[in-house]
Design brief:
Mean pLDDT: 90
Distance between the termini: 55 Å
Largest sheet: 6 strands, mixed
Number of strands: 9
Number of helices: 3
Structural class: alpha+beta
C-alpha cells in the first residue's frame, strides 16, 4: 500500500510547488509599469520548443492574453526588458499613455490558465498610494478595482 501511495505521489505531483505568475502594476507619477514573473518551465512549455522567447513574442503573448483598462482607456503593453534565470522569466513593461487620478481598473488575464493545471495569476497594484492584491485563476479571469 505504501508503494502505491509513493508511486502516485511521485508521478502525479506538479513539477513545482505553486503554479503561478506574478503581475505587479506600479503607478509612478503619470506612468504605469508592469513587472511580470513567469515560471520558466511553464512559459517554455506554453510557447513550445519552436518559438523563441524574446521581448517581441512575450509582448505579443501579454497583449493577447491580458486586457487592462484604466479609467476607460485600454492601453497596449510595451515590453522594455526581458531577463531570465534558472527558475523565472522576468518581464519589465510600460503601459502606453499617461495616467493620473485613476478611479477604476479592469483586468482580464488568462495567461497560462489553459496550459498549466491549477495555475493562478497574482496581480498586485500600487496605485494612488494604495496597495492591493488579487488572485486570478480559471474561475476568476476578470477583476474590477475601484479607487
Amino acid at each position: 500500500m505504501n508503494w502505491l501511495f509513493l508511486f502516485t505521489l511521485l508521478f502525479t505531483s506538479p513539477p513545482h510547488d505553486i503554479a503561478m505568475a506574478k503581475f505587479d502594476v506600479i503607478q509612478n507619477n503619470e506612468t504605469i509599469s508592469l513587472e511580470v514573473s513567469f515560471d520558466r518551465e511553464d512559459l517554455e512549455s506554453t510557447f513550445g520548443e519552436h518559438v523563441e522567447i524574446n521581448e517581441e513574442t512575450v509582448g505579443n503573448y501579454l497583449n493577447k492574453k491580458t486586457s487592462w483598462t484604466f479609467n476607460n482607456e485600454s492601453p497596449t503593453i510595451k515590453v522594455v526588458s526581458l531577463s531570465e534565470d534558472r527558475l523565472f522569466y522576468r518581464v519589465s513593461c510600460q503601459f502606453e499613455g499617461s495616467y493620473s487620478n485613476i478611479k477604476k481598473i479592469k483586468v482580464q488575464n488568462t495567461c497560462l490558465l489553459e496550459q498549466v493545471d491549477g495555475h493562478s495569476n497574482i496581480v498586485s497594484f500600487e496605485v494612488n498610494g494604495k496597495y492591493r492584491m488579487f488572485r486570478m485563476h480559471e474561475g476568476r479571469q476578470e477583476i474590477f478595482v475601484g479607487y
